[in-house]
Write a structure and sequence with these properties.
This protein has 278 residues and is α/β, with parallel strands linked by helices. The protein has ten helices and ten strands. It has a single domain, classed as 3-Layer(aba) Sandwich (Rossmann fold). The strands form two sheets. A six-stranded mixed β-sheet has the order 6-7-8-3-9-10, with helices on both faces. The protein has a four-stranded antiparallel β-sheet with strand order 2-1-4-5, with helices on one face. The relative contact order is 0.15.
Length: 278
C-alpha cells in the first residue's frame, strides 16, 4: 500500500507545485492522476520515489517511510517500478538486456558490468517478455522496436524489479489511440494479477475513465477530486480543467474501444476457423 501524507513541494523559483496532497492506494488498485498542465502530476509522481525532494510531508510504502536515509532510499526505490513516457531504454542494448537492467539494484557491480545476471533473473525476464507479448523480440535492439513495443519493454523492466508499487508517467502520450488502449489494458491486467498498486499520471481523461479503478484530479497542486471514474461527471471535470464538451469526448473514446474489441473478436474467430482446418 502507498500512503501519501500532506505532501508539499515549493521550487526555488517560488512555484508551489504541491500543496498538502494526501491519499492512499491499496494493493491491486490502479489510480489515474489527471489534471491540466502544471497541476503537479509529474511532480507528485517524482516526489513519491524521491526523484524530486519534497518540501514537506511524508510518503510510506507498506509502512516504510520513503526518504528516511540515503541507504534506506536506495533499498526502497528497488521496490518501486517506474514506467516512463519516453520509455528510458538504452537504445543500443537488446530487449533482454533492457529488461534485465531492472535488476541492477540487486546485483553486484561486476555482474551488471559484465552483463552476467543470475539465471533466476534471466528466467524471470523471459517470462515477463512472454507476458507482455515480446518473447520473439528478446535479441532485438531496442531502437528497432515500435513505440508500443518499447513501452512493453519498459513495463517488463519495471516488473523485473519485483516491485511493490508501480509509478507510471504518461505511458500513452507518444502512442496512437489503439496502442494506448492496449498498453493501458496490459498495465491494469498485470496489476490485477500481481495485486500491485499503481499510480498513473495520464493526460487522456477518457482513457483513464475506461481503465482505472479510481481517479485523483489535481488542479494547481491541490486534490480537487478523488473518486471512482463513474463519478467523474461534467461538473467534476469542469472543476479540474475548466469548461469542455466532456460527454462527446467520452462517447468518442467508447466508440473507438468498441471498434477495437470487435476487430479483436473477429481476428480471434478467424484464428479458430483456421485452426479447425489445420
Amino acid at each position: 500500500m502507498l500512503r501519501v501524507e500532506a505532501l508539499d513541494k515549493r521550487y526555488k523559483t517560488g512555484d508551489h507545485a504541491l500543496k498538502g496532497v494526501s491519499f492512499t492506494v491499496d494493493a491491486g488498485q490502479v489510480v489515474g492522476l489527471i489534471g491540466p498542465s502544471g497541476a503537479g502530476k509529474s511532480t507528485l509522481i517524482r516526489c513519491v520515489n524521491r526523484l524530486v525532494e519534497p518540501t514537506g510531508g511524508k510518503v510510506y510504502l507498506n509502512d516504510t517511510e520513503i526518504g528516511a536515509g540515503a541507504g534506506d532510499l536506495r533499498r526502497v526505490r528497488r521496490r518501486i517500478g517506474m514506467i516512463f513516457q519516453e520509455y528510458a531504454l538504452v537504445e543500443r542494448l537488446t530487449v533482454m538486456e533492457n529488461v534485465l537492467s531492472g535488476r541492477l539494484g540487486y546485483v553486484p557491480f561486476w555482474r551488471s558490468f559484465l552483463r552476467r545476471f543470475p539465471q533466476a533473473d534471466v528466467d524471470q525476464a523471459f517470462a515477463l517478455l512472454d507476458r507482455v507479448g515480446l518473447s520473439e523480440h528478446a535479441d532485438k535492439r531496442a531502437d528497432a522496436l515500435s513505440g508500443g513495443q518499447r513501452q512493453r519493454v519498459g513495463i517488463a523492466r519495471a516488473l523485473e524489479q519485483n516491485p511493490e508499487l508501480l509509478l507510471i508517467d504518461e505511458p500513452t502520450a507518444s502512442l496512437d489511440p489503439k496502442t494506448s488502449r492496449q498498453i493501458m489494458r496490459l498495465i491494469v491486467e498485470i496489476c490485477r494479477e500481481r495485486d500491485l498498486p499503481a499510480v498513473i499520471n495520464i493526460h487522456d481523461v477518457a482513457l483513464a475513465q475506461l481503465f482505472v479503478d479510481r481517479i485523483i484530479g489535481l488542479r494547481a497542486g491541490v486534490v480537487v477530486f478523488d473518486a471512482p471514474p463513474d463519478r467523474l461527471d461534467h461538473a467534476a471535470l469542469t472543476s479540474i480543467y475548466g469548461e469542455e464538451d466532456w460527454a462527446a469526448m467520452h462517447r468518442a473514446a467508447e466508440d473507438d474501444a468498441a471498434e477495437e474489441d470487435e476487430a479483436e473478436q473477429a481476428l480471434q474467430a478467424r484464428r479458430e476457423r483456421l485452426a479447425g482446418l489445420a
